[in-house]
Amino acid sequence: MTDFNRKEHWENIYTTKELEEVSWYQPTPETSLQILKELDISADARIIDVGGGDSLLADHLLDLGFNNLTILDISAKSIERAKARLGERAKKIDWIVSDILDFEPSQKFDFWHDRAAFHFLTDKDEIDNYIKIASQGMSKNGKSIIATFSEEGPKKCSGIEIKQYTMAGMEETFGPYFKKIFCVTHDHKTPTQHVQNFIFCAFQKKN
User: Fold this and answer.
1) pTM for the whole structure
2) In terms of Cα–Cα distance, which of 30, 125, 109 is closest to 72?
3) How far apart (Å, rounded) are the C-alpha atoms in residues 138 and 5?
4) Residue 92: what are its φ and ψ, rounded to 5°?
């Protein structure tokens, strides 16, 4: 997709669709929150949500007392909407508008969350680059949650082809830099009542 402009695509999505209309909408991101609890991530941990944009994960993390949050999204519009929704609480978050593949972390994150971006990378070089950026941007023994569509899930999302994974495939893909802690599957019901099967994998950075 050499002519495809990823940023323009997502700016258009967030300009034309309301939060409750997008397929990935979750009032409560229960799976992410449960895994985060199981991984025993502290309230002071430096957390980044990649592709977090207008997701409600940030709202819930703030409610739970997490106080060192960074949200990265390719879409400026998605971040603008999230800031408007959060009001004064938005000042408690560091906001970054960037394609993850262009991201140069200025700090080391203790916890890396991505339910939104990774499965849109279908080119091997982009996938390898993503994993290197994640490794470089994480602290010693840092932990992560990477969620992606399983082979039982859709082959496209928001009009874009995605890459499906098995649990073994996720472990192999992240293996050079990360050790798998565990993986689980999750059926996400979209606002239009379609079911999308995800794999959530928890990893720890190798040192």
Assistant:
1) 0.89
2) 109
3) 28
4) -85, -5
